[in-house]
Design goal:
Structural class: alpha/beta
CATH architecture: Alpha-Beta Complex
Number of strands: 11
Helix content: 25-40%
Order of helices and strands: EHHEHEHEEHEEEEHHEEH
Shape: globular
CATH superfamily: Spore Coat Polysaccharide Biosynthesis Protein SpsA, Chain A
CATH class: Alpha Beta
Low-confidence stretches: none
Largest sheet: 9 strands, mixed
Number of helices: 8
Length: 256
């Protein structure tokens, strides 16, 4: 079996414009549903899953993340995207490249998820895998289409643009090999000649021309991204209570 990666990259440069006032006051990763900011809960879950290094790519209100890194010395390191307002998530990921020596987990900073999400993607035998859930009907789904053999073929927010073999919704937690990341970078370099607005999902689909990416489908997964006030209300009402029922409360900080 392929050894699981011990590094994770969290993309955290975005401005959170759809969060209105809450998004202007702090990064989305510092929303608090439980006792800790959601990105700090994610860091703790990653460490408990065996991840020894978490690289966070910052941008908007980066000082929040400097404080987080100070609380987790030796675990959390930072890379910064100074062009966060004029670039997409793939540009942020490319800036983490110097800190990535081998395969890694890729996550988004605005996720809440149960422990099982990491266990599933880390235990997948494939070098490269995206985590897929049943559709959440949150209104902002990224649908995943697979080939006949079960590998990633396409992703889109518009279900009608995909073929018949749609497996579910992209969770935002992926396992990527160095080869896959380099293929994503090669595609990105061509796009960056025209624009920095490239989502990592599009670069990942482009990489599947040379690197097979498995789709790890997990039914009944408790998770959500938080892009707007409706997402936040749904998480507080339904998703986070389900996570607590399955995993219990995360309430410790470094040193506690």
């Amino acid at each position: 079996m392929t050894a699981a990666p011990d590094t994770a990259v969290i993309l955290a440069a975005g401005c959170g414009l759809r969060m209105e006032n809450a998004g202007r006051e702090r990064p989305k990763g510092f929303l608090e549903i439980g006792a800790l900011p959601i990105v700090e809960e994610s860091v703790i879950r990653l460490a408990e899953a065996g991840i020894r290094r978490v690289v966070i790519v910052t941008g908007f209100l980066a000082e929040f993340y400097r404080g987080l890194a100070a609380r987790y010395p030796g675990l959390v390191t930072l890379a910064h995207n100074p062009r966060f307002a004029e670039s997409g998530s793939m540009y942020s990921l490319s800036l983490a490249g110097e800190a990535i020596e081998a395969g890694f987990l890729l996550l988004e900073s605005d996720l809440v998820y149960e422990r099982r999400a990491l266990e599933e993607v880390l235990s997948d035998p494939a070098l490269d895998a995206v985590l897929v859930s049943e559709p959440t009907h949150s209104g902002d789904e990224v649908y995943v289409e697979a080939s006949e053999t079960g590998f990633l073929r396409a992703m889109s927010k518009d279900r009608a643009r995909l073929g018949p073999n749609v497996l579910g919704e992209l969770v935002g937690i992926s396992r990527l090999s160095e080869a896959c990341f380099r293929a994503m970078q090669r595609h990105a370099e061509n796009v960056f000649r025209e624009t920095l607005h490239l989502d990592y999902e599009d670069a990942l689909v482009a990489a599947t021309r040379s690197v097979p990416v498995a789709c790890r489908v997990v039914p009944d997964l408790a998770w959500s991204e938080i892009d707007d006030a409706e997402h936040l209300a749904r998480v507080r009402r339904r998703v986070y209570p389900a996570i607590l029922a399955r995993d219990g409360v995360i309430h410790r900080r470094a040193g506690e």
